[in-house]
Write a structure and sequence with these properties.
The chain contains 13 helices and 13 strands. By secondary structure, it is an alpha/beta fold. Helix 2 runs antiparallel to helix 4. Bound molecules: zinc ion.
């Protein structure tokens, strides 16, 4: 039957995974391919080549997204799928690339089975999904929905280089924007990055919503003093203030059942054993699918950090980086993913995503869905991240079936939540 014919070639998927995941920064731990790194450039060339080999027309848009198109019979709008190929530092082999490789494999299976869709199929490798040194995530998917502002492009990295300077293209980034009638729907396949599917013994997750994220950088300015002579009660220790801020972030993360909060990075200067730290910086992020909680969190954290800084006589600057409100996926697309999975015989459950994804941005433009496949032990953003190729095959097969269903079945943007 038709759906079985679209099943992916697992050996080919395995070989692709092996090649692409192996393009990493030699000097970094884990499977690291940060945006703008040499390995990332190599990976993107690899992706463009694989897309072309799959018969896709390959185009790099002004922000740097790689877009491969398979022409359909003539419906103007495209069905899009894709994900990202950058990783966090010290990351794993599957986060992101699974969704890009699956899109390419679907294109190959359509070609090999002589299946021509009514819509164009658009497979996208979105630029820089992970948070980077500029404090900006989802560069590519933000750009296609018109959500990259001049402020984002001006964000400096640690060396003072603006994000805009890192982009290959000096073209108008606004030209990367997709028109609202250009894309009929979007589906992203991704590893779950959590333990739920494995724990429940299920093959697939149908994502109902993507958690919102707030990110803040707190910079503390204390006073450098001799660590031997300045009494404890008379110090203005920036690092101790930062330590209290770290605990405040944790407490806020514990304040709601579905919320999480993390400090992933702390820096301090001058970094000498015999000098009281005069400068410290804390990078934090807070996530929840609850809009009311996220609405409160900025005020709560700002007040808590101001309190700890005041108590120690330390000045603080708090910068809120890109925020991302919770995003529901489109009900009709969820239904098509679920019915496609069921009709092949795959088990699934509905679930929210605690992780942010490119799909969260595309959802502002087009009906959007996400498919999760299990992550072994729930591990992700670490070298141990693992998903069996058979599971990736299940996800890829379901992606193909869903796109096929979207090509013919009526589905629409979900207007009310
Ligand atoms: Zn990802």
């Amino acid at each position: 039957m038709k759906l079985d014919r679209l099943a992916p070639d697992l050996e080919r998927l395995q070989a692709d995974l092996h090649e692409l995941s192996g393009l990493v920064e030699p000097d970094l731990d884990g499977w690291s391919r940060p945006v703008f790194s040499e390995s990332y450039r190599a990976a993107r060339e690899w992706v463009a080549r694989k897309m072309a080999d799959a018969g896709l027309q390959v185009h790099v848009d002004p922000v740097g997204n790689i877009v491969g198109t398979r022409e359909g019979r003539g419906v103007r709008a495209a069905l899009a799928t894709g994900s990202h190929t950058d990783t966090v530092r010290g990351g794993g082999r599957f986060d992101g690339i699974v969704g890009v490789l699956a899109g390419i494999e679907v294109a190959r299976r359509l070609r090999e089975t002589g299946t021509v869709l009514e819509h164009d199929l658009r497979v996208v490798d979105f630029l820089g999904e992970e948070p980077n040194d500029h404090g900006v995530s989802c560069i590519g998917s933000r750009a296609v929905v018109g959500a990259i502002s001049a402020d984002y492009l001006a964000m400096p990295d640690g060396k003072g280089v603006a994000l805009g300077e890192r982009l290959d293209s000096r073209d108008d980034i606004a030209a990367a924007r997709w028109a609202s009638d250009e894309v009929a729907g979007f589906v992203e396949l991704h590893v779950e990055q959590g333990p739920v599917l494995e724990r429940d013994g299920l093959q697939l997750g149908v994502v109902t919503a993507i958690a919102g994220i707030e990110r803040a950088v707190a910079t503390f300015h204390g006073r450098p003093d001799h660590a031997g002579t300045m009494p404890m009660g008379e110090r203005h220790d920036a690092l101790l203030t930062a330590a209290e801020a770290v605990l405040a972030v944790e407490q806020i993360g514990c304040s709601a059942p579905d919320a999480v909060a993390t400090v992933g990075r702390v820096e301090s200067l001058p970094g000498a054993l015999n000098i009281v730290p005069s400068w410290a910086r804390v990078w934090s992020e807070l996530r929840s699918a609850s809009t009311p909680w996220l609405d409160r969190v900025r005020g709560d954290l700002t007040a808590r950090i101001a309190d700890v800084a005041r108590a120690r006589g330390v000045d603080v600057e708090l910068d809120w980086l890109n925020d991302q409100p919770p995003v529901p996926t489109t009900r009709s697309v969820q239904d098509l993913i679920a019915s496609s999975a069921s009709s092949i015989g795959y088990s699934w459950r509905a679930m929210p995503s605690g992780a942010g994804h490119d799909a969260a941005h595309i959802a502002s433009l087009a009906p959007t869905g996400m498919i999760f496949i299990p992550s072994q032990g729930g591990r992700s953003h670490c070298p141990e991240e693992w998903t069996d190729v058979e599971a990736i095959g299940v996800g890829t097969h379901t992606l193909a079936a869903t796109l096929l269903a979207m090509d013919t079945a009526p589905f629409a943007r979900q207007e009310e939540q």
